[in-house]
Design brief:
Blueprint (H helix, E strand, L loop, with lengths): L2 E5 L3 H13 L3 E5 L2 H11 L3 E5 L7 H11 L4 E6 L4 H9 L4 E4 L4 H20 L4 E6 L2 E6 L2 E2 L4 H13 L4 E6 L4 E2 L2 H15 L3 E5 L3 H9 L7 E3 L2 H12 L1
Parallel strand pairs: 1-2, 1-3, 3-4, 4-5, 7-9, 8-10, 9-11, 11-12
Antiparallel strand pairs: 6-7
Helix pairs in contact: 2-3, 6-7
């Protein structure tokens, strides 16, 4: 049974998480403060943590930083309010892997957990997270799992290959489980900037709803359009190339 730790200063929220997560088959630990949450984390070492971002005393940003120092690969999902865009960006820059908005919706929670479990599975399997292929002359960059600072070199190598192949259209095809955080955000923006500067057309497809919102928050959608369906994305590239 997989362990999950939930940190929130509101008892009703903890009770709700406990009810849902136990029903999903998780072994659930709860903490009403950041300090208590870190104690439990050090003892139990759960691979998955869900933490509110606004708490008295040690807040969610501090908790996130400490957990990532101790265990960089732990999946940390933060809980924010709908007006907390700056805090969401800050948390993702500190390597949070996903986020939930209050009030928590059951489907949103289920989807975030599914993405987290899939990312943990990719990490354990050492499956390739970034790969390059081609469809009808368009460069396809497949991305899955948690993309962060450790993938900077691979992304740059991929882009170099695209240039060497003379590709002018690039589709970044994300698996819905993908998370882009920390330095990974800056690296991806850099790659898109190079595409733009070199006259290459770039579009994005496959992102979860959460990361569509996040890419909009950090300005990525000003550099590359996001499409739900791959065929729509490819059609748009063909139009731009024509």
């Amino acid at each position: 049974m997989q362990k999950v730790l939930v940190i929130d200063d509101e008892k009703p929220t903890l009770s709700m998480f406990q009810l849902f997560l136990k029903a999903y088959g998780y072994s659930v630990y709860t903490a009403e403060s950041g300090e208590k949450g870190l104690e439990i984390f050090e003892q139990e070492k759960p691979p998955l943590v869900i933490s509110d971002i606004k708490m008295p005393g040690m807040d969610g940003i501090q908790v996130l930083g400490r957990i990532k120092e101790m265990s960089p690969h732990t999946e940390v999902i933060i809980i924010t309010g709908h007006g907390d865009a700056d805090l969401t960006i800050r948390a993702m820059e500190l390597n949070a892997t996903d986020f939930l908005h209050k009030p928590i919706e059951k489907n949103a929670l289920q989807n975030a957990l599914k993405r987290a479990v899939e990312r943990l599975g990719i990490l354990e399997s050492s499956e390739e997270q970034i790969a390059l292929s081609s469809i009808n002359g368009t460069a396809i960059v497949d991305i899955q799992g948690n993309i962060n600072a450790s993938h900077e070199k691979r992304l740059q190598e991929i882009y170099q290959e695209i240039n060497e192949q003379g590709k002018t259209c690039v589709l970044f095809r994300f698996n819905p489980n993908s998370s882009v955080n920390g330095t990974g955000i800056a690296v991806f923006i850099q790659i898109l900037s190079m595409c733009r500067d070199n006259g290459q057309k770039a579009v994005i497809t496959g992102l979860s709803e959460n990361f569509q919102k996040f890419f909009h928050l950090v300005g990525i959608t000003r550099m590359a359009e996001i499409y739900e369906a791959e065929d729509q994305a490819l059609s748009r590239l063909q139009e731009q190339a024509g």
